[in-house]
Q: What sequence folds into this?
């Protein structure tokens, strides 16, 4: 598939690793409705392209994302006054759907693993969009802030679901109550990010992690695993995991990938998995229904 082109993003695919770069560096990559729509489109593309084995998201310039673009001033979050075509298309009755939430819900459904390489300041939607990504690496120059209460609004992008699951309720509430901007070391200490890196080492570290996935694992197995871990975060009993595990093992155990995985291990060689996410992903969730906004 040809690489897509965007106005607010850069998209690159190299050896199975897609890199999505937020690309408004003169505005510290501030989030706009256009960026919302393009991020959703970018993840539609990575899911559809079997050449993509892992996704890295980072920012151009010195910031990851400085939050929502505030150029509309006091009307920034007044969607009745400050509407756009992208927002108008996502209005349900009298309610304007939150654009950040639409992005994180799309990432939640991703069939490819998603790695955040947080190169600089990440506040507001700049940090909440990361919560649906699987692994976060941060530069020592990164800063984080759940600043919503300091802007007179509430947390968004489904962060009230994601954040406590990542760092616990106490830390989530402290960060959201105070709205303070905190350093990368605190984010690491509290478990928000997996590792800290000097600025020049950040992307190489993210790419090395992506390569570990792309070079050694079956893409269909990774897609199933991602669904299992995220969907089970809301399950009410381990039996739900057991059902999915059992269906998955039965389907995957009879696959060409499983034969290749065992054979390559016994022959001490790199595997070459034949199955594709686009055509060979089994349905191990017969009762899973997409949620609708109402």
A:
């Amino acid at each position: 598939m040809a690489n897509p082109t965007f106005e607010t993003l850069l998209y690159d695919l190299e050896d199975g690793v897609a890199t999505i770069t937020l690309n408004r560096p003169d505005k510290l990559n501030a989030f706009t409705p256009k960026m919302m729509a393009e991020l959703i489109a970018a993840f539609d593309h990575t899911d559809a392209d079997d050449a993509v084995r892992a996704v890295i998201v980072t920012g151009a310039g010195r910031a990851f994302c400085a939050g929502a673009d505030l150029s509309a001033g006091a009307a920034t979050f007044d969607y009745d006054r400050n509407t756009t075509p992208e927002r108008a298309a996502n209005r349900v009755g009298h309610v304007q759907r939150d654009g950040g939430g639409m992005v994180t819900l799309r990432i939640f459904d991703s069939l490819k693993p998603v790695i955040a390489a947080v190169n600089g300041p990440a506040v507001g939607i700049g940090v909440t969009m990361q919560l649906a990504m699987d692994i976060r690496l941060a530069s020592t120059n990164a800063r984080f802030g759940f600043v919503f209460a300091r802007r007179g609004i509430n947390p968004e992008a489904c962060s009230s679901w994601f954040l406590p699951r990542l760092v616990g309720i106490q830390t989530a509430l402290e960060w959201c109550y105070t709205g303070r901007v905190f350093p990368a070391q605190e984010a690491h200490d509290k478990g928000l990010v997996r590792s800290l890196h000097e600025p020049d080492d950040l992307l190489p570290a993210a790419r090395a992690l992506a390569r570990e996935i792309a070079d050694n694992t079956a893409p269909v197995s990774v897609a199933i695993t991602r669904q299992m871990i995220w969907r089970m975060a809301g399950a009410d009993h381990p039996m739900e995991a057991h059902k999915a595990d059992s269906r998955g093992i039965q389907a995957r155990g009879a696959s060409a990938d499983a034969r290749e995985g065992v054979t390559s291990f016994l022959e001490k060689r790199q595997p070459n998995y034949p199955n594709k996410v686009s055509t060979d992903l089994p349905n191990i969730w017969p009762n899973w229904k997409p949620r609708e906004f109402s």
Summary: The chain has two domains: 9-213, 218-280. The chain is about 40% helix and 15% strand. The first helix runs from residue 33 to 48.
